Amino acid sequence: MDEIDVAIHLEPMAEAIKELKEKTEFCLLSLNAKVDGIAQLTNERWHCVQQILDLLLERTKPRSNCVFCTVEDNKDQHPTGRCCKYPDAVSRAVQAAALGLCERCLQPKHVEDCGVSCPICTRNHNVLLCPNRGTQAVPMYKRRKVGYNILKYSHRLSSGSGVDTVVRTTLPYSPYFPFSRAARYPSVVYLLPKFPSYYWIINNRRHSHSGTYNPLRE
Question: Its domain of life (predicted)?
């Protein structure tokens, strides 16, 4: 076989090999692009998952009931208003500044106005940071419980003298009054005749008692 025959037979093979090489390179480029895209998408999703995990760990980690003390320092679980490590307004203000807290709401510093003011001196700081907190009391409003708590007993002596003796006493609130033990045994002890009769007045109404004593007849 001369050189002409070799060139005739090898030329198609060389072209086929060249075409195969080009296709292989194109497939490799496409595959590399797909792998890079998958890697980028995986990294983005992993970054989102990592942020969610960090947020879950941040929300579920142990927190101190006191904003001035850490979890290790707050062994007795005391609240912020009863902190013994920072008892006065000056030490609390210094600790709040060291922790980067807002002086008004005692939360991490923020740009927007939280609108919190001191109810004692009306200045722009928290009530726990007020120097006048120990000298002036904050007004407290409590709801008074209304019930059978004020009783008025009137005992008539059996001697017929017509003299009435009134005993006033304050008993604990009981929804089952007058059948409770507190109603039958007042806290004020008074010596009475053997079988006295009495009544009690609640809300300007007279009620008779069906116990062991005889009710007073009007």
Answer: Eukaryota
